[in-house]
């Protein structure tokens, strides 16, 4: 099975995160990356709660591929423990994890260059959680808007794992010394916690961590067919693995509005703007120009164009995905190799953390002996 796969879709234009970057005076993150790619390391990830969708692709996956092509080391964590943050049943985890691996590779991540690993296979990451939990307060965890929204949507009492999962994510990022985190908008509050944890650790125990920065694309919050954030849990997705016909059906059913004249107005016409943005991002155009082309032909024509853009852009990825899914042994090997590499890196970070905290007991060999 070849490991280098051509990137099937033009990567969406990336923009820097408004709240997690170093501030408006500093050089934008993308410029700093382009000037010195070797100074950065990427960590990003997904929950194995189902197959990936267009929101993942345009929100983070294409950015991961772009950063890999720029020569940055890329780590992708499949956050299997996080599946049970908001549900009791982990579901068919193995099948879902292997599907994610196939989708990453089909999108252009190269296992020879990018480290793909399941969280549960790298125990050092969970060790980091212990000191990190000492660096956050109950109040700051409780006011995290994404945690609040997810707790509400789960219709269950707020569990300890859901409350603390931004700290787990801080451990995932900092545990592989990640400095650039390509994410969607919902992750920005979590990135703030990761930055605080890094700074507070350094202040309290000595300089170990670089506060990571979020990297958003032009579509950090893609909407699904019901007008809410496209999300596996809501079942409002256009799947990367959906057929062309199924895609047409989903797009046809997407909420829009009654105004026949198509204009790009993200604040007042978010669902129309969402479809325009999808077309624009996948065809390398400006959404205003796409709107002008559709003009008075209304939502039906806009949806026809969106369907065509999605199916054209994803066709090679979908073919490649199907081929990869036919070889689960290869996919499992990719994960195994990724876990070994991520484990080495995380063990190194944990050693530095223990040293900074004065936990170097091995020398002299007196521990445990009487
Ligand atoms: P779940 O419903 O299980 O939480 P999800 O669809 O929200 O699934 P995640 O695995 O939570 O997907 O998210 C993985 C990454 O993809 C995160 O960086 C997240 O910000 C990004 N992402 C998810 N949905 C979107 C979206 N609709 N638009 C942009 N980015 C997204
Ligand atoms: Mg999510």
Feature tags:
370 residues, mainly alpha, Rossmann fold, Tyrosyl-Transfer RNA Synthetase, 3-stranded mixed beta sheet, 3-stranded parallel beta sheet, 13 helices, 6 strands, binds adenosine-5'-triphosphate, binds magnesium ion
Domain count, please report it.
2
Catalogue the ligands: adenosine-5'-triphosphate, magnesium ion
Average pLDDT reading: 92
Indicate the structural class: mainly alpha
Biggest sheet strand order reads 1-6-5
Figure out the total of helices. Answer: 13
CATH class value of the largest domain: Alpha Beta
CA radius of gyration is 21 Å
**Strand content bin:** 5-15%
CATH superfamily caption of the largest domain: HUPs
Major pleated sheet: 3 strands, mixed
Examine the coordinates and then state which fold CATH places here, giving the name of the CATH topology of the largest domain.
Rossmann fold
């Amino acid at each position: 099975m070849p490991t280098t796969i051509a990137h099937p879709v033009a990567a969406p234009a990336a923009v820097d995160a408004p709240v997690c970057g170093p501030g408006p005076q500093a050089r934008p993150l993308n410029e700093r990356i382009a000037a010195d790619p070797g100074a950065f390391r990427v960590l990003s990830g997904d929950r194995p709660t189902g197959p990936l969708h267009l929101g993942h692709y345009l929100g983070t996956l294409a950015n991961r591929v772009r950063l890999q092509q720029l020569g940055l080391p890329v780590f992708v964590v499949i956050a299997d423990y996080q599946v049970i943050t908001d549900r009791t049943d982990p579901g068919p985890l193995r099948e879902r994890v292997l599907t994610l691996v196939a989708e990453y590779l089909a999108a252009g991540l190269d296992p020879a260059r990018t480290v793909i690993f399941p969280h549960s296979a790298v125990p050092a990451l969970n060790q980091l959680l212990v000191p990190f939990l000492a660096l956050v307060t109950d109040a700051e965890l409780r006011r995290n808007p994404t945690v609040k929204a997810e707790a509400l949507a789960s219709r269950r009492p707020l569990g300890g794992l859901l409350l603390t999962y931004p700290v787990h994510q801080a451990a995932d990022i900092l545990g592989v010394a990640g400095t650039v985190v390509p994410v969607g908008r919902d992750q920005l509050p979590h990135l703030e916690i990761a930055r605080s944890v890094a700074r507070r650790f350094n202040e309290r125990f000595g300089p170990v961590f670089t506060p990571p920065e979020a990297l958003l694309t032009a579509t950090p919050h893609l909407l699904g067919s019901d007008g809410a954030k496209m999300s596996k849990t809501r079942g409002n997705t256009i799947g990367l693995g959906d057929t062309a016909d199924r895609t047409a059906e989903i797009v046809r059913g997407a909420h829009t509005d009654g105004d026949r004249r198509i204009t790009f107005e993200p604040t007042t016409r978010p669902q129309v703007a969402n479809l325009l943005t999808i077309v624009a991002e996948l065809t390398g155009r400006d959404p205003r120009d796409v709107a002008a082309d559709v003009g008075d032909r209304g939502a039906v024509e806009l949806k026809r164009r969106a369907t065509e853009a999605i199916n054209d852009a994803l066709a090679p990825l979908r073919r490649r995905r199907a081929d990869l899914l036919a070889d689960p042994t290869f996919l499992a090997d990719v994960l195994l190799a990724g876990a070994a590499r991520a484990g080495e890196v995380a063990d190194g970070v944990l050693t530095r953390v223990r040293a900074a905290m004065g936990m170097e007991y091995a020398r002299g060999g007196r521990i445990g002996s009487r």
